[in-house]
């Protein structure tokens, strides 16, 4: 266990499990933006797939009761016995809950409809903000954990942020892209102060960019003015293949590897890993929430 992880784990994290030698504390990235339909799930699924294709062992955690990441990876609702819900409430371990996907090296912690009740149940649960941290910030056989957050700043999202090293924020290239973002930034500040000082913004990814539309350029400029270098160079274009792929239960990178959307997500994964190298070598590419505000 790294020193960092020992210091930031919740005080009463269980320690009496047996771990195999190839287990380690994973890097945990949340894909979060409380705005609906901005490309969180598409980014989570395709970034996770691209990281796996590059050779990383990846766990995608579906934290959204809608379960779009799970179905988008071909997991049938009927086949889900244990879900992220059971992990949160300690009715199952991560190992008992993960399911393999068609992508080698990519595993999923599936969502279930029970998650829609989790918010209310969590309110009266002990260590309610630390449930995911306790399950995920332990030695696991994954290098990366990617969490697909629901479109809210609820206790579920809070659990994701408390467990994470960094956040990737997808922003749709539309007129109100930046609207409401101050709430996300304030939530990160609150998490920094009260629960997880480690949490940083890894980067902002512009999604659904339409190069025929001047507004997309304008929005991209505004976002770069606001977030500076935090905005990844890779921009995800609007591409129908990205929206078709989930109905086949496949990530776009598998469904049509050559489509512009798939290529963009492969580039995004490379950029994410480049930043990771800088962060892990102490280069400090990330900034804290106050710098973004
Ligand atoms: N780059 C893109 N090009 C075309 N369609 C896209 C693109 N990104 C996402 N979509 C489509 O837009 C819709 C919303 O995307 P997605 O589900 O990824 O957003 P989300 O932020 O996860 O939504 P929610 O807030 O409901 O969880 C989906 O139908 C998806 O297939
Ligand atoms: Mg989603």
* Percentage of β-strand residues: 5-15%
Q: Kindly provide the name of the CATH class.
A: Alpha Beta
The helix-strand sequence is: HEHEHHHEEHHEHEHEHHHHH
For the record, what is the CATH homologous superfamily label? P-loop containing nucleotide triphosphate hydrolases
CATH level-3 fold name: Rossmann fold
Major β-sheet profile:
7 strands, mixed
* Rg, alpha carbons: 18 Å
Helix content: 40-55%
Q: In which order are the strands of the major sheet placed?
A: 3-4-2-5-1-6-7
The CATH architecture can be given as 3-Layer(aba) Sandwich
Q: How far apart are the first and last residues' alpha carbons, in Å?
A: 33 Å
| Ligands, deduplicated | adenosine-5'-triphosphate, magnesium ion
Number of domains: 1
Explain this structure to me?
With 293 residues, the chain is α/β, with parallel strands linked by helices. It has one domain (22-292): P-loop containing nucleotide triphosphate hydrolases (Rossmann fold), CATH 3.40.50. Helix content is 41%, strand content 12%. It contains 14 helices and seven strands. The protein has helices at 3-8, 40-53, 68-72, 84-88, 94-97, 115-123, 131-136, 155-163, 181-194, 214-227, 240-244, 252-255, 260-280, 289-292, and strands at 27-31, 58-62, 99-100, 106-109, 144-148, 166-172, 200-207. Strands 3-4-2-5-1-6-7 form a seven-stranded mixed beta sheet, sandwiched between helices. Strand 3 and strand 4 form a beta hairpin. Helix 2 crosses helix 13 (260-280). It is globular. The chain starts with a helix and ends with a helix. The model is unreliable at 1-17 and 285-293 (pLDDT under 50). It binds adenosine-5'-triphosphate and magnesium ion. Magnesium ion is lined by residues 40-41, 64, 68.
């Amino acid at each position: 266990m790294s020193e960092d992880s020992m210091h930031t784990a919740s005080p009463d994290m269980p320690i009496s499990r047996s771990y195999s030698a190839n287990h380690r504390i994973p890097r945990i990235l949340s894909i979060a933006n409380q705005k609906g339909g901005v490309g969180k799930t598409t980014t989570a699924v395709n970034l996770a797939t691209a990281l796996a294709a590059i050779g990383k062992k990846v766990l995608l955690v579906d934290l959204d009761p809608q379960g779009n990441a799970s179905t988008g990876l071909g997991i049938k609702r009927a086949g889900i016995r244990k879900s992220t819900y059971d992990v949160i409430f300690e009715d199952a371990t991560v190992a008992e809950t993960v399911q393999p996907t068609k992508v080698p090296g990519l595993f999923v912690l599936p969502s279930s409809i029970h998650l829609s009740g989790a918010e209310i149940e969590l309110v009266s649960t002990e260590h309610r903000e630390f449930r995911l941290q306790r399950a995920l910030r332990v030695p696991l056989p994954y290098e990366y954990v990617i969490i697909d957050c629901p479109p809210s700043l609820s206790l579920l999202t809070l659990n994701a942020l408390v467990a994470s090293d960094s956040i990737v924020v997808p922003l749709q290239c539309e007129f109100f892209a930046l609207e409401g973002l101050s709430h996300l930034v304030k939530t990160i500040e609150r998490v920094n102060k009260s629960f997880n000082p480690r949490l940083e913004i890894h980067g902002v990814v512009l999604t659904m960019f339409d190069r025929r539309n001047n507004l997309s350029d304008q929005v991209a400029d505004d976002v770069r003015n606001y977030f500076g270098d935090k905005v990844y160079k890779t921009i995800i274009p609007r591409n129908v293949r990205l929206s078709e792929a989930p109905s086949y239960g496949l990530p776009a990178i598998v469904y049509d590897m050559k489509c512009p959307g798939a290529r963009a997500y492969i580039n995004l994964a490379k950029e994410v890993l480049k930043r990771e190298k800088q962060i892990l070598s102490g280069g400090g590419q990330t900034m804290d929430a106050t710098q973004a505000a």
